[in-house]
Design brief:
alpha/beta; globular; 10 strands; ten-stranded mixed beta sheet; Rossmann fold; single chain; 14 helices; 13% strand; 456 residues
Length: 456
Amino acid sequence: MAERRAKRAGRISRGRPSTAGSTGAAVTKKVPAVPTPLTSLEPVKGFGSWRPDDGVLALGVGLAAAGMGAVLGLAAERIAVARMIRPADVTDKIGDGRGGPPLGSLRGEARVVLSRDVPLHVEVDEPEDGAPAFTVVCSHGYALNLDSWHYQRLALRGRFRLVFWDQRGHGRSGTGPLGSSTIDQVGEDLGAVIDAVVPDGPLVLLGHSMGGMTVMSLAAQRPELFAERVLAVALISTSAGGMGGFDLGLSGIGRLGMRLAPAAARALARQPNLVARGRRLGSDLEGLLVRRYSFASPVPPQLISFSARMIAETRMEVISDFLPTFSKHDKREALAALHGREVLVMVGDSDLITPGEQSADIIRLLPEAEHVVVQHAGHLLPLEHPDLVNGHLEELLTDAEVILRASTRPARRRNWGRRTVTPVRQRRRWMHRNTDYTIDRSLEPSPDRSTDKESS
């Protein structure tokens, strides 16, 4: 194998100007860049004879399993390179493929909050007069950024005071020192954002994927904040712990990838030349990985590329630094701080990253929470089925407003049980305008809260 690779490398480089002993003379002939042969890469210390080329599949699987943000891994850097050589990217076109403004185009009042000397990018959307007297704080997932709340921001802005922030190492925020990318630390970061931007007054906390873990981490560190100020919480496509046993629907290989991923990611962070292979594989990986692990129903191509772009813009060293924290994450005890709050738990029935069992585990510990399972939905639920997610969030915010005004919990949510909701399929593949949903609201809760009736 090594000999064949060497021969191929020799054939490719034949006739290419040598740079050895170069005197700086200009080279007039343009030659396509060739990535460094993988045989030149050093094995990962402490990981036997593993090399990056031996673990490509395991890396993609493992990073997706641990990552929470969609599909990560090799696709992230490869897509970043691949999209630079494509003639046009659909995310550069007008609109979002659904009749709305371009994805990621919404901006608010920018602020910078320091958390342990790491600058965190925060955006605030102030409400119009007469809005409820609470602030909604939104925390995004791993390898995404605050723009992943695009549709929720579009639906809620002007009606509520909204706060969005980029987690450390993501989006426009700074990166902390090596080893600081942990669920405990991002929980502390969320606390710093609240202290700086919402120092007083009632709160509603929304978290998707790692953002949900961030909310739980804050609950573990500052339960008094939840007792005194938090009215409601939404936990979307997330986990309270115990993620190591899930395999992305790939049987044992997913768990293998979970073990290989941290070492593989560290190796990739040290091997920038490997990124060049994305010139051949980026588009295929974008279609295969992002579609498979992010969505479970047809979505506009603009959304695929938008998700891939967020992933690609997350640096490999950030991905590798965060990875070990997910297998250690366990904030099940912290959920006790959410008792007495209005809690919405949502998950897609085809979520391969944080499958339904993870949400069911949260419900077992928070039996009064509303549990919504969305059919034909993957991990990026707020982007895939925004109208449905927005509808449930608006109900949650309405309940928060009732609590704020009457100081009592609304009867609507008590003993709600589990609901399975089904998005109505569209006749045309990419037309999601005026989307209607069939929602079964007639379910009577069973004593064990396992009520589940599929909508027609």
